[in-house]
TrEMBL record:
Mg(2+) binds at D82, D124, K125, E445. NCBIfam families: ilvD, PRK00911.1. Residues 35-351 form the Dihydroxy-acid/6-phosphogluconate dehydratase N-terminal domain. The active site is at S471. Its EC number is 4.2.1.9. Binds 1 [2Fe-2S] cluster per subunit. This cluster acts as a Lewis acid cofactor. It comes from Patulibacter medicamentivorans. Pfam families: ILV_EDD_C, ILVD_EDD_N. Functions in the biosynthesis of branched-chain amino acids. Catalyzes the dehydration of (2R,3R)-2,3-dihydroxy-3-methylpentanoate (2,3-dihydroxy-3-methylvalerate) into 2-oxo-3-methylpentanoate (2-oxo-3-methylvalerate) and of (2R)-2,3-dihydroxy-3-methylbutanoate (2,3-dihydroxyisovalerate) into 2-oxo-3-methylbutanoate (2-oxoisovalerate), the penultimate precursor to L-isoleucine and L-valine, respectively. GO terms for biological process: isoleucine biosynthetic process; L-valine biosynthetic process. This is Dihydroxy-acid dehydratase.
Length: 557
């Protein structure tokens, strides 16, 4: 196999002298330019901890590539922190960034004709974006997750960023002081790495390891572990091995490997954002996969991981317990893993699942005969409020049904003001609309509202539905991704204050007590909120983005 089948177009022949001159001027000599060129993409940025270790990891990946006979070329992309932008207009940019990141990696790799690609990821949207780019390009490559933040400590107890979001609600309810809130925020996020629970970043990292596109055992090594540098070096070496095997992302991303990824999400109590992101990856890879696949797999998969936000342990605890290989071994033992699928690591995913070394006495990953639940951590509902489907997170609470009066808000900030002022009553169903992919635009997460409800002690008595998203840190009875969204006059647009809404998980229904004709008449008369984002990237996204039920991708048919 010609390992330079792409980059020869850039580096070889007298007619490429100018290109070589440019590259020699920044340190690439003839020897380097004669080797396969491997792109090393990452999102180092000084706006968040999630990606703050990426330059260090990139240097080790590059060392590994050079040691294995390749020439690395490093490139950056943008990144948006969900946690920092949460509850502000800036949160509109988060999901949009997924598309921009995938586009930018694709453009550099196509423009400079890389032979292979390593994508280093961290914050939530960088992870699916990196794999989306790999799927589009279909050149030999893999994804390395930068790792999560270890927990902070306060008065002898572990704390995470989830503790801070919930403390905001406690503060609003007068349960803690300004000084106590300040004391917590000073220690809750101690250094580099992504959020440390089974929130979206760790969920997606686990899912892609289960898919086989990420090195086995690497995802849960936390960002500050000394061994993370060795993981990065070995990833660089592995990139050259993947190139020599001519193993391409679309050889790995298949319907069966997507099913393995969904089983990992369901069995770990992972983020509902995985539905959007795995649908998007499937679309990019040309794999027939839809929202109902998630429900079918989740029904059959026991909830095995006792992880935040619904459980007791964090991502570092999962690593100490034995990490993803031990968890994948549980799925294999249960007959829930397609075993014979290829991975970038080399062995099949089933063989890798046999390599897990379980820490004696650990309680993070439960045995099959003692699951937290008999079925997984999410479900897909339909009904007259969500004919295209919606997603409900089941881990972290026991409720399966809720009926109550609608409290309707046209955007997140309206709801937050009422919640923090004590205006929500037990039994209410909070409806937040105009936060969908188009209507937002950008499909903001409702973590500020859901965490405030939890911090105020009423999350167990109310429900929340939205055409927006939820953070992986959300827990409580929350239904997101309601489709069609209000902007497109989906049925959520018909709901008025006081209408009776029922969420029925067992029946897989989300419904409002209205007849079809009344819903149709109200939807026809509904005037969506006019977005202030009439120009620029958000306006462009709003014109191109599809339904949440199909991954909220910007692929134009």
């Amino acid at each position: 196999m010609d390992l330079k089948q792409n980059s020869r177009q850039v580096t070889e022949g007298p007619h490429r002298a100018a290109a070589r001159a440019y590259l020699k001027g920044i340190g690439f000599d003839n020897d380097a330019l004669g080797k396969p060129i491997i792109g090393v993409a990452h999102g180092w940025i000084e706006t968040m901890p999630c990606n703050f270790n990426h330059r260090v990891l990139a240097n080790k990946v590059k060392e590994g590539i050079r040691a294995a006979g390749g020439t690395p070329m490093e490139l950056n992309h943008i990144a948006i922190s969900d946690g920092i932008t949460m509850g502000t207009s800036g949160m509109k940019t988060s999901l949009v960034s997924r598309e921009v990141i995938a586009d930018s990696i694709e453009l550099v790799a196509r423009g400079h004709l890389f032979d292979g690609l390593v994508v280093i990821t961290g914050c939530d949207k960088t992870i699916p974006a990196g794999v989306m780019a790999l799927a589009r390009l279909n050149i030999p490559g893999l994804m390395l997750y930068g790792g999560s933040i270890p927990p902070g400590h306060l008065h002898g107890e572990q704390v995470t960023i989830q503790s801070v979001f919930e403390a905001v609600g406690q503060h609003a309810a007068g349960k803690i002081s300004d000084e106590q809130l300040d004391e917590l925020e000073n220690v809750a996020s101690p250094g580099a790495g992504a959020c440390g629970g089974q929130f979206t970043a760790n969920t997606m990292a686990m899912a892609f390891e289960a898919m086989g596109i990420s090195p086995s055992g690497a995802a849960m090594v936390h960002a500050q572990a000394p061994s993370k540098l060795e993981v990065a070096f070995r990833t660089g070496e592995l990139a050259m091995e993947v190139l020599r095997r001519d193993l391409r992302p679309r050889d790995i991303i298949s319907k069966q490997s997507l099913q393995n990824a969904v089983a990992a999400v369901a069995g770990s109590g992972g983020s509902t954002n995985a539905v959007l992101h795995l649908l998007a990856v499937a679309k990019e890879a040309g794999v027939d996969f839809d929202i109902d696949d998630f429900d079918r797999i989740s029904r059959a998969t026991p909830l095995l991981c006792d992880l935040l936000p619904g459980g007791r342990y964090n991502a570092v605890d999962l690593w100490h317990a034995g990490g993803n290989p031990v968890f994948l071994g549980r799925l294999k033992e249960a007959g829930l893993l397609h075993e014979d699928l290829p991975t970038v690591t080399g062995p099949t995913i089933g063989e890798l699942a046999d390599t897990g070394v379980e820490t004696e006495g650990q309680r993070v990953i439960r045995p099959l005969d003692d699951p937290l639940r008999d079925s997984g951590g999410l479900a897909i509902l339909r009904g007259n409020l969500a004919p295209e489907g919606c997603v409900v997170k089941l881990s972290g609470h026991e409720r399966r049904r809720h009926t109550g009066p609608a409290r309707v808000f046209e955007q997140e900030s309206d709801a937050m003001g009422v919640v923090t002022s004590g205006g929500i009553r037990p039994g209410d169903v909070i409806v937040i609309r105009n936060e969908g992919p188009t209507g937002g635009p950008g499909m903001r997460e409702m973590l500020a509202v859901s965490s405030a409800l939890s911090g105020m002690g009423i999350s167990g008595e109310v429900a929340l539905i939205t055409d927006g998203r939820f953070s992986g840190a959300t827990h409580g009875f929350s239904v997101g991704h309601v489709a069609p969204e209000a902007f497109h006059r989906g049925p959520i647009a018909a709901v008025r204050e006081g209408d009776e809404i029922t969420i029925d998980v067992d029946d897989r229904r989300l419904s409002v007590a209205l007849g079809d004709e009344e819903i149709a008449a109200r939807c026809a008369a509904y005037e969506p909120v006019v977005s202030p984002d009439a120009t620029g990237v958000l306006a462009k996204y709003a014109r191109l983005v599809g339904s949440a039920s199909e991954g909220a991708v910007t692929i134009v048919a």
